[in-house]
Design a protein that fits this description.
Layout: E1 8-11, H1 13-22, E2 31-37, H2 43-54, E3 57-59, H3 61-71, H4 74-85, H5 91-104, E4 111-114, H6 120-133, E5 138-144, H7 149-157, E6 159-162, E7 170-172, E8 191-192, H8 199-221
Parallel strand pairs: 1-5, 2-4, 2-5, 3-4
Antiparallel strand pairs: 6-7, 6-8
Helix pairs in contact: 1-2, 3-4, 5-6, 6-8, 7-8
The structure holds zinc ion (ZN).
Length: 222
């Protein structure tokens, strides 16, 4: 790993996408892009653009957790137990999944992390794994900055996701046509509101984000 953080760029999503497009020719293929930002700040949208338009590989720890649960693996059962009791997956389980994922996705395409790491402790564990096991990677960090929490809450309240665990396409209620039948365009699955996206849970997620974000950002800048 060359550096955990070359720079933090606070820009809007479009500007970040432009930066990525413009620097296409100069980034190394063994690069990890880490996108940090509050729930609803646009991490998912930016990730989707990078995958569809730039051919990046996506690593979403949320998706990995949900896939393990859907598979009914030992790890999935453990994750389920923790989410029932504490509402969180322990950091050591997440970093193990990230390590396995990186070891099995040795492709010459940049990787984009969606919403991970979330805390300074997760960033420390990740840094350690990258340093010891994947020193060939360069890490670049982008921080999506949105100061208006009410705007974020409104955005998330309009979010619908495909219930198909292997699809999980995201839609916005505002942009769905009236004639839309509530099914996913990609796979036909039902569109649902994620339990995490209910307003009182979103407010709690934003509180938790604020609590961790400063320390995390400072660690990534260091
Ligand atoms: Zn779908």
């Amino acid at each position: 790993m060359k550096s955990i953080c070359q720079r933090i760029v606070v820009l809007n999503i479009l500007a970040i996408a432009c930066t990525l497009f413009c620097s296409l020719s100069c980034y190394a293929s063994r690069t990890i892009f880490i996108v940090l930002g509050a729930p609803g700040a646009g991490k998912g949208t930016l990730t989707e653009q990078c995958i569809k338009q730039l051919g990046f590989q996506e690593l979403s720890t949320g998706k990995l957790c949900r896939q393990e649960i859907a598979l009914g693996s030992e790890k999935g059962k453990l994750i389920n137990q923790f989410s029932m009791s504490t509402g969180m997956t322990p950091d050591y389980i997440i970093v193990e999944m990230v390590e396995t994922w990186l070891a099995t996705h040795q492709e010459d395409r940049p990787v984009i992390f969606d919403g991970y790491p979330r805390t300074k402790h997760q960033a420390e564990l990740l840094t350690q794994v990258l340093k010891e096991k994947f020193p060939e990677y360069t890490v670049r960090v982008f921080l999506l900055s949105v100061s208006d929490h009410e705007e974020l809450i409104k955005r998330i309240a309009n979010r619908l996701v495909c219930e198909n665990k292997t699809c999980q396409a995201v839609y916005n209620r505002e942009f769905l046509k009236n004639s839309h039948n509530g099914h996913c365009d990609a796979c036909g699955g039902y569109l649902i509101t994620r339990p995490d996206d209910q307003e009182h849970i979103v407010r709690e997620r934003l509180r938790s984000f604020d609590q961790h974000n400063l320390k995390l950002s400072l660690f990534m800048k260091a």
